[in-house]
Each structure stands twice: as structure tokens, then as C-alpha cells.
Amino acid sequence: MSFSHALNNALSGLTASSRMAEVTADNISNALTEGFGRREIRLSSTSLGGQGGGVKVDEVSRLVDRGILSDRRDAGSARAYQEAIADGFRMLEFETGTVDDAHSISARINTFEAALNASAADPSSNQRLATVLASAQALTQAIREDAEAIQATRTEAEHRIAAQVETLNGSLQKVYQLNNSIQELMNSGGDANALVDERQRVIDTISGIVPVREVDRQQGKVALITPSGEVLLDGPPSEYAFLARPMVTPEMSLSGGGLGGITKRGNPLGDDGYSRLAGGSLEAAFKLRDQAMPAAADALDEIAADLIGRFEDAGFDATRAAGLPGLFTDAGAEMDMSELTGLAGRIAVNDLVNPEEGGALWRLRSGIGAAAPVNAGDSAQLTLYADALADKRSLPVTGGLVASVATHAGGWVGDVSLGRVNAEEALGFASARYDTMKAAEYEGGVDTDFEMQQLLIIEQSYAANARVVQTIDQMMRRLLEI
After folding, report:
1. Does residue 440 lie within any of the structural domains?
2. Most buried one in 139, 202, 269, 338, CB count within 10 A?
3. Rounded to a whole number, what is the distance in angstroms from the first to the last CA of the chain?
């Protein structure tokens, strides 16, 4: 072997060792970086004139287990879905309270019933009658606030849909741009792995909103398709639109046209509003807006209808004239059973018993339609009002359990808490699955101990090649001295 061949071998070895050290150091420094794929350098031997010509760097490969990555993204989509559902029920329960909370409607009903019984024990006391009025007003206010909390949760879901559609569109555009940049870099012989890392992070963001399958295309590009077949990106990205309403009210629904769904090129995606974009946080927002919260609102409206209906019953207040409201009203009017939607947000105490609205407290003792006060010691009507609360009857629309107002209201409050508990249990399972897949992904990632061992081997290789160059230099100097 000639000096030139030997020197070329050693220099190529130094170059390869230097590149290997760079790649290994990059692995170590990014061991905890999200989306980073471990690099591995691939070498091959070369020849010059039929003789060994040293070593060359073929490529720097990015090593990622695509199966584990796909499973982790699926787990992340499921976790994002359950997290959004749990957040919605937490928000609602925080506002409505639990059965034991003093501000819950079940507790307010108990307080109102206790005030009626106390007033019946001393019907001549205006102070006790005022307490009855105050507790009735607190009860209706609590029901209205719970109704507002439900609509606030729906409005929040509406705005989340809009934000997530915007994020989805922006992320798909980023993937499209990265696809093109990766293609250009690969065609020019550059290292596109850093761009592939960034693309993986962007796709991870998308997978929380909508589950995705990543499909390889030519020249380093990828396509994104949902498990149900919606093509998010294959070349230019799809673009989705959603028109958010500033506020969601009880009568607004997707089927009724008051609320909108996602559109693509001006066409609705489906009757449910999201069609083949199901599985992530986007679907969860639709479920909260269109199913879970409306169901809670309908149940609360029925609780309000049950309460109003008892005090419109002639058996508990014979003084009420037909067509006029009882102690509790639908925004000041008699309840219309055909217009129950939003009733919980309209329930109020009849102004006839409120001195501040021109009414009189004595009507609590005499009856809502009484023309004149009864004897101050007469507790019959107060007792009937208390009996109306305790009367065992089923709900006016769905029927079911025969119980008092307090029991029905407690059931509704309990259902909200149960929804939160069930959502958090499902979230716990989804989070555990995600954590397991994330751990598996890390296990196939950068092993810093292994990388440090590689650095030692690279150091030895570099030193050996440097020694060859030094020896050739000494030999050349010696020959020149002769």
C-alpha cells in the first residue's frame, strides 16, 4: 500500500470518527427531547484503483419504532378525549356542587322546606315568612345558576371546537411545509432528520385533536389519514371550517340548525358535526356541547317543572286561579308543559309574595290567589306548601322514581357528580395506557449509557487513525531528510 493510500484511509477514518462523535453527542443531548428520533450513522468501505480507499459515511438514519409511535398516538387521542370530557364535568360539578354542598339545589330545597315548617309552627311571624321567601328565592336562583353553568360549559365546548379546528388547519399546513422542506433537503443530499423530528412533534399535536395514521410517501413525505378514512393530508392539506357562536343557549342544537358542525370545502362533514374526525378532543367537545350537557339541561328543566307543577296543583293551593302561576313561575307566567326547554333558566318566585315587587308576605300564609289575609294563626296553607315538597310523585316527563322534590333534585346533583367520577375513571385508564406506550417509546429511544460507550469506542478509533497520520508524517519527513 502506498503512502497516499494509507494517508487517505486514515483521513477518511478521522472524518468518519468525527461525524460519529457528532451524531452520538446529538443523541445524548436530545435524550429527553420530545419527538427526537435516535440517530445512527451508516458507514461503508471505499476503494481506489482496486485497493482499499478507507471509509465513507453513507447516511445518518433516524431510528423510530413506527408501531409503538402509532400506538402511543392512539393512546394520546383517547386520553385527550377523556380529559376533555372530564374537564367538562368538573367544570359543571364545581358550579352545581355535590349533594353535601350548601349551595346545591338539593340543599336549597331542604332549606326551603325547613323554612316552611318553621313558619307553619308560628304563622303570625312576618320574620319567618320573610325567611320562607328568601329561601324560595335562593332555591330558584340556584336552579337558574345551574342552568347557566350548563350553558357556559356548552359555550366553552363551542369555543374549544373553533380553537381546535384552527389548530388542526395550522398544524396540517405545517406538516405540508415540512414535507416539502424535507424533500428539498433530501434531494440536495442534506440531513433532514431535524425536520423529521419537528414534523413528528406537529403530528403529535394533531393526534390529540384527531387520531391519525401516518403513511409514507416518496422522497421523505408522509400522508395523514384518520382511522375512519378521512384524508387530512396527502399532498396539499385539507382545510376545515367551523363558525362558532358567541354564546350557546338552551334551545340551540345541531339538529335544529342553531349550532353548526365542521365543514370541508363548504360541505358539512356529517349529521354529528365531525363525522370521520372522531376519537380525540375534537369529538369530546361535540359530545359535551350536543349530548352530555343538553341531557343534563333537560333533566334540570324537568326538576324545575316538577317544582313549579307541585305548587300549581289545586290540592296544595286552592286559591290559585286557572291560567295563573302558583308560588313558582315560568318567568312570571304559568308553566307550559310543551315549552320545557330552558325552564330551569326561567324559574322564579311569584312577585305576588314579594313586597319589593308590590306583593305581600301574607300570601304565603293565605295562598297565592287569596284576596285577603287569613287569620294570622292559620298555618294550613304553609303546611300544604311543605306537603307539596314532600309529596311522592314521579317526574312529569320521564317518570321513573316516585319521590319528593328533594330526592329528585338530589338525584340530579348526584348524576352530575357520577358523570364526573365516571369520566375521571375513564381518564385514569386512558392515561395509564398512554403512559405505558410512552414508556415503551422511551425504551426504544436514546440509551445514554450505550451512547457514552460508543463515544469511548469512537475516541479509540479517532486516536488510532490520528496515530496512522502521525506515523506517515514522520516517515515522509524521514524520507525527505535522506
Report:
1. no
2. 139
3. 21
Q: Please name the helix (run of DSSP H) or strand (run of DSSP E) that holds residue 349, with its range, or none.
A: strand 347-349
User: What's the whole-model pTM score?
Assistant: 0.88
d(CA 22, CA 154): 52
The tens place of each residue's pLDDT in the chain, 482 residues long, gives 576 777 777 778 788 788 888 878 877 887 777 878 778 888 888 776 666 667 887 777 777 888 999 999 999 999 999 999 999 999 999 999 998 899 999 999 999 999 999 999 999 999 999 999 999 999 999 999 999 999 999 999 999 999 999 999 999 999 999 999 999 998 988 888 899 999 999 999 999 999 999 999 998 999 999 999 999 999 999 999 999 999 999 999 999 999 999 999 999 998 999 999 999 999 999 999 999 999 999 999 999 999 999 999 999 999 999 999 999 999 999 999 999 999 999 999 999 999 999 999 999 999 999 999 999 999 999 999 999 999 999 999 999 899 999 999 999 999 999 999 999 999 999 999 999 999 888 887 777 777 788 888 888 888 888 888 888 878 888 878 77
Task: Mark whether 87 and 136 lie in a shared domain.
Answer: yes
Residue with cell 350557546: 248
Same domain assignment for residues 337 and 474: no
Examine the domain organization and report whether 162 and 267 are in the same domain: yes
Give the domain extent around 195: 70-434
- Nearest Cα residue to 346 out of 359, 364, 333: 333
Q: How many CA atoms lie within 13 A of 158 on its CB side?
A: 21
- Residue 439 falls within a domain, yes or no? no
Residue 311: CB atoms within 10 Å: 22
